[in-house]
Write a structure and sequence with these properties.
- By secondary structure, the chain is of the alpha/beta class.
- It folds into 3 domains: 181 residues, FAD/NAD(P)-binding domain; 107 residues, FAD/NAD(P)-binding domain, CATH 3.50.50.60; 107 residues, Enolase-like, domain 1.
- The strands form 6 sheets. A 7-stranded mixed β-sheet has the order 5-4-3-2-1-6-18.
- A hairpin with a 5-residue loop joins β22 and β23.
- α3 packs across α4.
- The chain binds flavin-adenine dinucleotide (FAD) and nicotinamide-adenine-dinucleotide.
- The site of nicotinamide-adenine-dinucleotide has 25 residues, from α6 and β19.
- Nicotinamide-adenine-dinucleotide (NAD) binds next to α6 and β19.
Length: 425
């Protein structure tokens, strides 16, 4: 059996390695460096900057190169043929590739094709939009702008706001919705907003940006007009799937501007062709892309894959961190629920390590006490959330969570305290 995979981000390269481990021949085509957006312009460079006190581009390059070498090693398998070039579908079982070195186009046939071409930054159709940088350009900034204005209070906007505030910039975030992180639990988002404000980040919500002019952003709130002076402007209003160049129309694959349509096995409207990761327009997260790749592969080789896509931990790497899994309170409409909350300031480890700004909330069903959501704000939230993910994935109850012993003094006790405070009976 031979599989063709287009795109070498987390959706593509991890699936290629797993397919080869199952003894399947793989042709992996990428028009960008191994690791895709996540390694080269996303998760890894941003998290490297999070760990630094100044924009050390050399350190960022070292980290990316080290991890890219690891991926190259992973793909060093006689069953995997790696081709650098731009691929387009030529039939339901074949692709043509324009090689990156400008050579003659190549054709490949496979028993199945997986599209994992990711996404690109979106922009606003407003005058002067070209004056703003996208997240990739922000990662190349050699210095620290005195005044940074971020358009969009979503995940990317807030992570960059946090990073550049730490580097010393004066930061203003302009968010269109009434709250930052509109898709997160509103309790969590409001607390994060307050924490970021305490660290000196100005956040304007319900802000409608109308134009960008050299050195300033024009926006309004209600019937009042404002302008924010800035040396650097980041446009972070979402990402759109990389649909162009694939020849989807001719191939007869259904899609919308939000992404390629797939079924529960990640199969597109054309049997044998699958799509995974950001190109499907769902949760644009690296770990979702790789999990979807495993799901598609399982279907291709007729194996079961038990991954539950309703239990996806997500983290925002601000200071403090925010993390969520399962349902938000807003998503519990119509359900009888109870919540249990606990603060970091009552946690020995948090206070002794000077990280007492934090909070945790567990959401459970009233009566049975089954845990269906958890939201954490504070130091190491991105790691702590996984205990909640395990509890939810295994259908655990508040009582079972209470019965688990947490070591003392650790931040994980916050989760135990939230479970203890959850009156489900
Ligand atoms: P990508 O990683 O985008 O890879 C797609 C690949 O396909 C690219 O290499 C591209 O060159 C290639 N390609 C495109 N078209 C073609 C073609 N026609 N032929 C051949 N190759 C093609 N997610 C997290 O989970 N955690 C984070 O902390 C995080 N931080 C982020 C920070 C930023 C600034 C950004 C922008 C994103 C971040 N993300 C994060 C999101 C994450 O990067 C994406 O969800 C993830 O990379 C999606 O993986 P993918 O495989 O679908 O696509
Ligand atoms: P996003 O959807 O998270 O946030 C975009 C924000 O821009 C929203 O809050 C939206 O209301 C706001 N917005 C839209 N139009 C606006 C306007 N006209 N004026 C002001 N604000 C406006 O998108 P993003 O932050 O660009 O991130 C893209 C994707 O990348 C996300 O899906 C995210 O999951 C992923 N990502 C994940 C991580 C992580 O997991 N830590 C980090 C970065 C990016």
């Amino acid at each position: 059996m031979r599989i063709i995979i287009i795109g070498a981000g987390p959706g593509g390269y991890e699936t290629a390695a797993e397919a080869a481990a199952h003894g399947i021949e793989v042709v992996l085509v990428s028009d960008g460096p191994l690791g895709g957006t996540c390694l080269n312009e996303g998760c890894i460079p941003t998290k490297t900057l999070c760990a630094l006190d100044s924009p050390d581009l050399e350190r960022k390059r070292e980290v990316i190169e080290q991890l890219r070498a690891g991926i190259a090693q992973l793909l060093k398998n006689k069953l995997i043929t790696l081709i650098y070039g731009k691929a387009r579908l030529s039939s339901s079982r074949s692709i043509t590739v324009a090689p990156a070195d400008g050579g003659e186009s190549l054709s490949f046939e496979g028993d199945a094709i997986i599209i994992a071409t990711g996404s690109v930054s979106a922009s606003l159709p407003i005058p002067g939009a070209g004056l703003a940088l996208d997240s990739s350009a922000m990662l190349q900034l050699p210095g620290v702008p005195e005044r940074l204005c971020v358009i969009g209070g979503g995940v990317i906007g807030l992570e960059f706001a946090s990073i550049f505030r730490k580097f010393g910039s004066e930061v203003t975030v302009l968010e269109y919705c009434p709250n930052i992180l509109p898709r997160f639990d509103s309790d969590l988002a409001k607390r994060l907003k307050a924490s970021l404000a305490k660290r000196g980040i100005t956040i304007e919500t319900s802000a409608k940006v109308s134009a960008i002019e050299p050195g300033k952003v024009l926006w309004s709130k209600g019937d009042k007009d404002f302008q924010t002076a800035a040396d650097c402007i980041l446009m972070a209003v979402g990402r759109r799937p990389n649909l162009q160049s694939l020849n989807l129309d001719e191939a007869g694959i259904e899609y919308t501007p939000r992404g390629i349509k797939v079924d529960e096995n990640m199969q597109t409207s054309l049997p044998g062709i699958y799509a995974v990761g950001d190109i499907t327009g769902g949760m644009m997260l690296a770990h979702v892309a790789s999990a979807q790749g495993r799901k598609a592969l399982a279907h291709i080789i007729n194996k079961n894959c038990g991954t539950d896509f309703s239990v996806v931990p997500a983290a925002v790497f601000t200071v403090p961190e925010a993390a969520s899994v399962g349902r938000t309170e807003e998503e519990c409409e119509g359900l009888e629920i109870c919540t249990g909350k606990a603060n970091y300031r009552a946690n020995g480890k948090a206070v002794s390590s000077g990280e007492a700004d934090g909070w945790c909330k567990i959401i459970a069903l009233k009566g049975s006490g089954r845990i269906i959501g958890a939201h954490i704000l504070g130091a190491h939230a991105s790691d702590l959330i996984h205990e909640a993910a395990v509890l939810i994935a295994l259908g655990a109850t508040v009582q079972q969570a209470r019965d688990i012993i947490h070591a003392h003094p650790t931040l994980s006790e916050v989760l135990g305290a939230a479970a203890a405070a959850c009156k489900y009976e």
